[in-house]
Amino acid sequence: MFRTDMLTVALWVSLAAAFSLWLADGGFSTISNPTQAITAVGILAGLAGMDLVLLMLLLAARLPFVDGAVGHDRALEFHRKLGKPALYLLLVHGIFIAIGYGMAEGLNPVSEAIALWVLVPDMWLAFVAMALFIAVVVTSLVAVRRRFPYEFWYVIHLLTYVAVGTAIPHQFSVGGLFADGTWQRWYWLLLCIATGSALAWFRVAQPVMATFRHQLTVRRVVRVAPDVVSVEMSGLRLNELSGTGGRFFVWRFLAPGMWWQAHPYSLSAEPHVVPSVPGRHPRQEVLRITVRNLGKGSARLASLKPGTKVAIEGPYGVFSTAARSRKRIVMIGAGIGITPLRALLESTPFAPGQATVLLRGRNEEELFLNDEILELCRKRGVTLFHLIGPRSPLPGSEWLPASAAHTTLQDYAPDIADADVYICGPSAWAREVIAEAKGSGVREEQLHYERFDW
Amino acid sequence: MRIRAGISSALASAAILLVGWQAGTHVSDSNASAVTTSSSTGTIGGSSAGSAGTGTTSDATTGTSSGSSSGTTTGSGSSSSSGTGASAKAGASAKAGGTYTGTSVETRFGTVQVQVTVKGGVITDVTALHLTDEEQRSVQISNRAAPLLRSEVLSAQSANVQTIGGATITSDAYLTSLQAALDAANF
């Protein structure tokens, strides 16, 4: 919680600092007429907008500090929330600068914009950046995104880097605030370089190193249910792969037509050793993911050939033993969200009788990996509940099946107030479970929740 | 928890803004003092500028009569020296065209001097020989303003154009130097 607060403070401070750059440059004293006021608004909006863009990049950079404090999924949720404000600020920046400069020169904003585009070095890049930012935010909006496949959205999103890249030159060459020799220039430069380095290290260098270190290869693909497949992969040093950290990785299967798509999935089985079978295969270290057919990309997983190389990013997420704060544990999963619980159930420490597992599905077939989970529960002394059936119509208990509408979380796990609660499933469902858990006295630091839809 | 984060954010942000604002008033104070110093040295700048003054085709190297220092009132600190005195004699042959150099104008950000090319009574080109370059920061302001000014001048066919937003001092000096060059060309 302390770290979450720190992040909140850091966010506001970075915005205040952006304004301060301008204030410290005597910005306030330059305003003596409406033209200058409009220009000043434009400049400030630009500073704040770029600051938000950099924050968005940092939130998506998988910084261990950020992901550890708020969780990868919540960091990304926040990243999404900043998208629109950032775009609005950048639009205000462009429009007000065009108006302000235009008024000073007796031009209308459009002519001024054209003049800037044509005549001032680096300004055409800034216009390109603006167009790209608009494209990225519009395609990221949920409503629009639904109409496109995930892969299309993903490629568009990569354009963010181009957008930021093309937006930077004019800030330093045209923006008087960041002129050579000012400390403001150094501050801004440092901010940009730090963000760039964080992205390069955590999103490129580390994944590449992990990929080479663990040499993951598809071992076999097993159909678990009509639209669910498990992908087993063998590799090296897999026990070092995740440790007590998160169990969620971004996978890239290096097969023709698939290598450029990255898919986020959690482990559905801890790394384990398969003893050698003479004449068949040597001793292998194996891990597994279980995937429901959600999009075109995941549909193709079923056709993966054994031997396909796999690149990984991770581990990410708060679904880990490292996040534990209590001795008792309650795990609640729905649908395909059950599968990460299976891995956690296997590895996280607890004594017999200290763990409770609740599995929710519309029917028996939706309790994926049920046999394995049942086996693990027997072995480790876990109380297991199956919540099967159509959704309850009662408000507040919609996370339950209709047949159990009048039960509460405490009926299943009486000690829940003194337990770590792991929740994994669709976000609307999870919100209700979280609300009920909080109502049962579960504090924020005991709640570990991972979204299971992108 | 939320409240704690909110309060600390507000306090920290306010502190940073206050520091920025304080630094800002300090900057504008020192700017104000810079204006007074530059105006006192203005006459020196003016006289030296006058000698550099007029055009390449002109033989009026004696045009030292310029050097009126202004700029104290505008607060821009520009001590512009107009080359009007020198240009009068240079004129008559200018209709044929040629290249004319304007006076060099001192501003608090550095010297500005432009060269104009006139052909058949039309301004065909404006070249900046020297632009504001002090404090490094002015370089960028110049880089932005110069192409805009050049284009405005070429389309207006005179030095009577608007200054560039955010580059007022550079623009004023640019246009002053240009006017001197145009005067020298008897344009």
UniProtKB/TrEMBL annotation, chain B:
Short name of one Pfam family: FMN_bind
Signal peptide location: 1-23
Region (Disordered): 31-93
Residue ranges the record marks as coiled coil: none
Record keyword Acetylation present: no
Name of this chain's protein: FMN-binding protein
Occurrences of domain FMN-binding (ranges): 108-185
SMART domains listed in its UniProt record: FMN_bind
Species whose genome carries this gene: Arthrobacter terricola
One CC-aspect GO term: membrane
Low complexity composition-biased segments: 32-42, 49-93
